[in-house]
Amino acid sequence: METRLGRRHFLVGVAAGTAILAFDPCNHTWITTAHADHPDGISIPALDGELSVDAASLAEAADDFGHIIQRTPVALLRPGSVQDICTLIQFANLHRIRVAMRGQGHSTFGQSQAEAGVVIDSRTLHTIHRFDANTAVVDAGVRWVDLLAATLHQGRTPPVLTDFLELSVGGVLQVGGIGGHAHRAGFAVDNVHALQVVTGEGHLMTCSPTHQADLFHAILGSLGQFGLIVQAHVGLIPAPTQARVLQLFYTNLEQYIADQNVVVLDERFSYLEGQIVPVPNGVWRFILEAASYYTPPQEPDNTALLDGLRPDAGMMIQELTYFDWQNRLAPVMAALRQSGVWSFPHPWFNVFLPGSAVVSYVRDVLEDLTVADTGNGPVLCYPFRRSKLRRRFVQTPDEEICYLFGILRTAPPDDLSVVDAQVTANRVLFEQARALGGTQYPIGSLPFSPADWSQHFGADWPHFLYLKERYDPRQVLTPGQGIFHA
């Protein structure tokens, strides 16, 4: 049975007639009628949703897709309204309770956890309020796949989508949101028109480039440090109906990168990514993966798309609907869930590399990388343009052409030594990337100290500290990133 606190009254299903009456700040526990005479109890404000303290809810909030870090909160809030989030954070400020928001739980190293704090499950706030030709107004818990399905009925689409569409809008906007459209339109955070945010003091604020602009620009990509996104005005553009998808295969890393550099600048493709895949005898092959969107009767010109490119190991071309292309990972993920691999540890590694260093870095990594090191997870390598990015705290190398390099590892579930070794390897690879001017994309499994974060934000660190003091002075929000708490 589930223990709940909500709907303007308190209910506990563990024992009939039992009710949660207060919070014990000394022991970080809830006080029920069984301990109603507890001298240190603090009354809890009423909520529209549910504050759960049962073992199953706490176990879910203590885990994530990485299955590496487990930090158990004292409660999980399933908000029934945005006001619930304000109320909780105001209560947390009074009693020094840390708070994190969890969407689909797709982080890999405890980023959305709050040990001995309260985790907010944003999935109960999942309304698409309205949309027109240019903007969709959605709650933070809305999944991108649901937003896309809704807007396509009106011939519209978000300009930037991540590869995996089952992520929440709020979660993606807190970290950045890179995908195959980044070379044209930047990251997801660069395509937002306005936000509703609950600050670290529990204030609900609306912000945009013209209203509370400092908060608007600070929140996007800030890793949940100044406020929690509860609603977003996501930009929309006209949607095509078809995607012509090209996969170009290379045996030579230098040629692969050279062709990627050409097409990232001339923007001939609507979508641009790339992968590195193993082939027999320990050799790696490189795939330039691109798509050209269109709506019949207009069609792309294959000759123009391939002009000047030199794949030396063949190519494949296929036609998909626009939605099927964007949601292409859905059947893959369904198979992983069915097989149980979804629940394996995922010590992911993700960095941004300067374009000038990508060949040397990737070559060095591949010399030692094996399929066992990846667990058959994909290795990503594709470019984007820094000039397309506009959010201050999304840290990327100081060159126009940058590359995402990611090893999306899967580890065996019954051998923690493998997980530890892969996390250690991630740190070594990060140090090598940082020495070349690289930065981390903070969704992976990478041990990071407050000193690392200071170096990560570099010249922006003093302003980051200023905003933290201004909007979350008691450092209540999102402790799992380890920015202020080692």
Tag the structure with descriptive keywords.
single chain, 486 residues, alpha+beta, Uridine Diphospho-n-acetylenolpyruvylglucosamine Reductase, domain 2, Uridine Diphospho-n-acetylenolpyruvylglucosamine Reductase, domain 3, Vanillyl-alcohol Oxidase, Chain A, domain 3, 8-stranded antiparallel sheet, 5-stranded antiparallel sheet, 15 helices, 24 strands
Give the helix/strand layout.
Elements lengths: L2 E4 L2 E4 L7 E5 L4 E4 L9 E2 L6 E3 L2 H7 L13 E4 L3 H14 L3 E4 L15 E4 L6 E4 L3 E5 L4 H9 L3 E2 L11 H7 L6 H4 L6 E8 L4 E4 L5 H7 L7 E9 L1 E2 L3 E9 L2 H14 L4 E9 L3 E12 L7 H5 L8 E7 H5 L3 H10 L9 E6 L3 H11 L2 H4 L4 E7 L15 E7 L8 H20 L3 E2 L9 H8 L3 H11 L15
Parallel strand pairs: 7-9, 8-9
Antiparallel strand pairs: 1-2, 3-4, 3-5, 6-7, 10-11, 11-15, 12-16, 13-14, 13-15, 17-19, 17-20, 18-19, 18-22, 21-23, 21-24, 22-23
Rg from Cα = 23 Å
Largest sheet: 8 strands, antiparallel
Q: Would you tell me which CATH topology of the largest domain applies?
A: Vanillyl-alcohol Oxidase, Chain A, domain 3
The dominant shape is globular
Average pLDDT, rounded to a whole number, is 92
DSSP strand tally? 24
Stretches where pLDDT is under 50 for at least 5 consecutive residues are 1-19
Helix content: 25-40%
CATH homologous group name of the largest domain = FAD-linked oxidases, C-terminal domain
Q: How much strand? A: 25-35%
Report the structural category. alpha+beta
- Give me the side-by-side strand order of the main sheet: 20-17-19-18-22-23-21-24
